Amino acid sequence: MANKVTKLKQKLHSESMAKTYPRIERENCALSDEHLTDEMAPYCPTNMGDIVYVVTKESPFEGYHLLEELDLQTILPFFNTLLIYRIFKLSYGQPDILGALSELDLIKKTFKAQPVEWGYILKIMDNLFAEIRSSNMNTRLKLKYWIKSVPKNKDEKKLAIRKMQGFFSAFEDSIKKNAHLFNEEKEIDDQTESDAAILNIFSERYRSAEALLIMAQEGDILPDRRDLEFGEAPKVNTGGSIYLSSSILFVIALESLINTLYHLLLRPEFQAEPYERVTARADLDIRLISAHLFCEGFNAPILTPHSELWGRLLKLRQFRNDMIHGNITSDHVVYSFLEDKITFFYGPTTDFRGYKAEDKAARKYPTSMAHVNKDIVSEIKETVDLIIRAIIDAATDEHREWINKWIWEAMIPKFIKPRRLG
């Protein structure tokens, strides 16, 4: 391969790191599945028939010790694996291949290796080296410092620390000065966009809502009902806030699932921007009852108006709108009535409203934080679960199988229509 970066035909703005820290040839460069350690194995593919995952030995040199390991994603302000790869490739040439998918060629009886993990070894000083290397199928990037013998006295430790700090500063400076090598607008074309994986925000938010519900049951303290002293200005009480947070996250999780399905399954003829007000940006209930019209993958309507579940959805939608938009409702108002020259105070959330008003209030969830409790959140969760079940039941067999594969996973694979035989 030529030492050119694809897509961006630009040069380094700074080559100072390469001039200060020369590249050293890696001794342990042989690839084998026998080098997989217990720490590596969980993050590598297995059981792939004739394809095996092979790696080099962890240490680049025999007899060297790992002095320190840094996860670059957590400490670099300009972290970008592809950017860093391009900087090193332009500075030092082709990388060492540290991990690969290896397939047996039955005809030639040789292995074909598809590179996956890469790295570079740079000399900091005699017997102290820095290794930039990817791991976990090239999803993580680490900086490892390798040393021949671990420093024993204070002066040796100080020297090693100072040299490592100097290298890291030069490394970080090189990234900042060469950040032009990655530009999102130029990188993502139509093909890249269509092949992108999607984070399952539904699962993330639903699981978070469940965790908050458990937390609320164990430790959330609802405000005490007590008499206020004359002239007292009570402090704002946050009791019930965890229950409220859980309830909102359940609703957001449901909306995330609906938005995800519209994003992935919206029919091509409805993807133009003018349709958004009746498709992806329509109200929650409209998106649900019309998904089978605008999206591929559904045999029947998810919900039908006037059904019991439809009524529960409308109740959920009203709660969602009031809470997300911070609407002032009757739950937040306290009235005073003057009767026989005596002042009476009336609060709808604490006092009897009258038969008709009580019946009407029962059709809505409370919007006062102090009144959102375990029973309310449990009912909201049950409604969300029923709608999720209705979504899956309304899908075609192929799409139902696809949804069930990812609905509780971290990532969502692209739907690929199965090939039909004959």
Outline the structure in words.
The protein is α+β, with helices and mostly antiparallel strands. The chain has two domains: 16-187, no CATH class; 194-224 and 236-327 and 367-412. 39% of the residues lie in helices and 16% in strands. It has 13 helices and ten strands. It has helices at residues 16-20, 72-75, 81-92, 154-177, 184-187, 190-195, 201-219, 241-265, 284-294, 308-324, 355-361, 374-394, 397-406; strands spanning 51-55, 65-71, 96-105, 110-125, 128-135, 140-147, 198-199, 335-339, 342-346, 411-412. A six-stranded antiparallel β-sheet has the order 1-3-4-5-6-2. A two-stranded antiparallel sheet has the order 7-10. Helix 10 (308-324) crosses helix 12 (374-394). The longest helix is centred in the middle third of the chain and has 25 residues, at 241-265. The radius of gyration is 30 Å and the shape is elongated. The two termini are 43 Å apart. This is Apea-like HEPN domain-containing protein.
